[in-house]
Q: What sequence folds into this?
């Protein structure tokens, strides 16, 4: 959980905060986020997602397409000695990441958002928070 501000360097690397690295572990998988962001999973979280994707019906086009997209976009990423991850250009393009980013904790994974994109999204979500809470059972 939490939000950290960072910058992507000229080589496409971003520092993954140490508390996120500790929580996710050493083996990391990056893929497209469902929203315009990059999702990063630790191996355990990725295996859980992989199992859920594998259980989807192959007879439904939407299930096949979701599996294809998330699996084809997935790549193993390794932090260097300074905690930087190289985020592939196709993932940065998906997330509209240019330079300034937020890295946010989302439970079983973290997401990297372009700063302006997250600021817009967060403002909208804050405005809609009461109605969102009404829609979520058991909160």
A:
């Amino acid at each position: 959980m939490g939000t950290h501000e960072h910058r992507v360097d000229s080589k496409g690397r971003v520092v993954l905060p140490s508390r996120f690295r500790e929580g996710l572990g050493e083996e990391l998988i990056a893929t497209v986020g469902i929203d315009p962001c990059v999702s990063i999973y630790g191996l355990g979280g990725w295996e859980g997602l992989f199992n859920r994707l594998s259980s989807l019906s192959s007879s439904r086009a939407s299930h096949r397409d979701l599996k294809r997209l998330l699996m084809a976009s997935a790549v193993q990423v390794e932090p260097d000695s300074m905690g930087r991850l190289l985020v592939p250009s196709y993932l940065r393009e998906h997330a509209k990441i240019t330079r300034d980013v937020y890295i946010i904790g989302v439970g079983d994974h973290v997401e990297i958002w372009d700063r302006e994109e997250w600021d817009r999204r967060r403002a909208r979500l804050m405005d809609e928070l009461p109605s969102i809470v009404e829609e979520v059972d058991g909160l």
